């Protein structure tokens, strides 16, 4: 009986499976071609490198090992971390992400950064680091702005209607009109226009007079679980997902 049943199933399989496969695969081909074209339209043509000309080599170390001090108002937190959490044995190599893309709860604190001009959103991400760290262009492009905007700021047209903004610089190494390549020095990490040294890194797509702020975390290949400072004030989202990768882009 089992043999008959199996044989019957095999026959059914042989007869119907190819038909089903043919049908499914032609539909799937259409769907997948459609999805591919959608993905191509929606995917970011930007190929970005980290804008910091250092590596972050995290190792376990004693808390006394030099790290960075992240200050907000009168509170300070030292980020030298033990047991696989954040620590660099060389503070000059240290950089972390602490200010994520999106709306953040920190705006409710009177002593912290506010973004009223952005409808209380944070349009980029913040890399904390040692003042003086080399900041490099994350893309090829043309310098379209230098000066005081988000502190000392460089803005680069990266092509395809994308602009990339580097804020709070200590100094600026390029001028408007300069053609830069990915990895070129554009300035140094600083604290201009803010209260703690960090790089504000922002990616905008500009179309039809509108800017769409693109979550930079979706464009950079980094092990975020190892470089995001936990429990920093500016990490607390005012609304939305707690996962910074899931923060949607927004038009402003
Ligand atoms: Zn920022």
Note down, in words, how this protein is organized.
With 252 residues, the chain is α+β, with helices and mostly antiparallel strands. The chain has two domains: 1-43; 68-251, Glucose Permease (Domain IIA). Helix content is 18%, strand content 32%. It is built from two helices and 15 strands. Strands 3, 6, 7, 8, 9, 10, 11, 12, 13, 14 and 15 form an eleven-stranded antiparallel β-sheet that branches. The chain has a two-stranded antiparallel sheet with strand order 1-2. Strands 4-5 form a two-stranded antiparallel ribbon. A hairpin with a 2-residue loop joins strand 1 and strand 2. The protein is globular and about 40 Å long. The relative contact order is 0.17. Residues 99, 122, 124, 126, 200 line the site of zinc ion.
Q: What is this structure, in a nutshell?
A:
With 252 residues, this protein is of the alpha+beta class.
Name some characteristics of this structure.
252 residues; alpha+beta; Glucose Permease (Domain IIA); 11-stranded antiparallel β-sheet; 2 helices; 15 strands; disordered N terminus; binds zinc ion
Q: Tell me the series of helices and strands, N- to C-terminal.
A: HEEEEEEEEEEEEEEHE
Q: How much strand?
A: 25-35%
Which CATH C-level class of the largest domain is it?
Mainly Beta
Count of distinct strands: 15
Within the CATH hierarchy, at the fold level, what is the topology of the largest domain? Glucose Permease (Domain IIA)
- Average the pLDDT over all residues and give the rounded result: 73
Largest sheet: 11 strands, antiparallel
Rg: 24 Å
What is the rounded distance between the termini?
Answer: 69 Å
Number of domains: 2
